[in-house]
C-alpha cells in the first residue's frame, strides 16, 4: 500500500515538473524565430525572468491568480492545465507499468512485475506521453502537428517496437505493430485524399501511424473508435452551438491523442469485450 502511494507521489511530481518543461517547449515551437533564454522561464508578456518561487507547477499560478508578478498580465491557463495533465498521465502510466501488469496485449496482466524491459517500456511511454501532450496542445491551438515532435515520436516508436520484439514478442509482435502502423497511416492517407485534406491533414496521418506502431492492432482499434466517437460528439455540438459549417476545421489531433491513451489503458479490455459480445 505504501509503495503504491509513494509511486503515485513520485510520478505526479515528475509529471508536474515535466509539464512545466513542456510548456516551455510549446512556447519555443510557437516562437521559433525569437532566440529565447535556455533553461530559465520568463513571462510571455513582459519577458521578466520568473523566480523559482514563482515557478512551482500549479501552485504558483494559483497563488498569483494566473497573473505575472511584475506586469500583472494574465498568464494562460494552458500552463497549469498542461502541468496537471502531465502529472495525472505520468501517475497512471507509472501505476500501469509498475503494478498493474505488463503493457503488452497478449501477455497476461494483473500481476505485479518489474523486469528490466518493463522499466524500459515505462520510460518509453513517459517519453511518448510528453510528446503526445505537446501535440494535443499545439494542434488544438494552431491546427497543425509540429513535424519536430511527430518525427521524434515515430523514430522513438520504431526503437520501442524493436526493443519489445527482442524482449517479449518475437515475429508476431513485430508484424502486428508494423502492419498496424502502416494500415492506420494508409487508411488516414485515403481519408485525406478523398476529402482533399479537409477531414485529415498530413500530421494526422503520421500521428495515426505512430499510434498503430506503438499500440498494435487491439489498442489501435480501441483508440480509433474512441477518437471518432469523441470527434463526432464535439463536431456535432460545435455545429449546434455555433451553427458552424461542417467543413470548418476542427483539429483531429487532440482526439487522436486522447484515443491513444484509451487504447493504451483499455484497448485489450475493449476488444475482448466486443469479441465476447459478438462472436
Ligand atoms: Zn510579465
> Beta fraction of the residues?
under 5%
Count, helices: 8
* CATH architecture title of the largest domain: Up-down Bundle
CATH top level of the largest domain?
A: Mainly Alpha
Number of strands: 0
Q: Give helix and strand order, one letter per element, not per position.
A: HHHHHHHH
Helix/strand-derived category reads mainly alpha
CATH topology of the largest domain: Four Helix Bundle (Hemerythrin (Met), subunit A)
Q: How would you sum up this structure, described in words?
A:
By secondary structure, the protein is an all-alpha fold. It has two domains: 99 residues, no CATH class; 155 residues, Up-down Bundle (Four Helix Bundle (Hemerythrin (Met), subunit A)). 70% of the residues lie in helices and 0% in strands. The chain contains eight helices and no strands. Helix 1 crosses helix 3, helix 1 crosses helix 4 and helix 3 packs antiparallel against helix 4. It is globular. It starts with a helix and ends with a helix. 35% of the residues are buried. About 4% of the residues have low confidence. It binds zinc ion. The site of zinc ion has 8 residues, from loops.
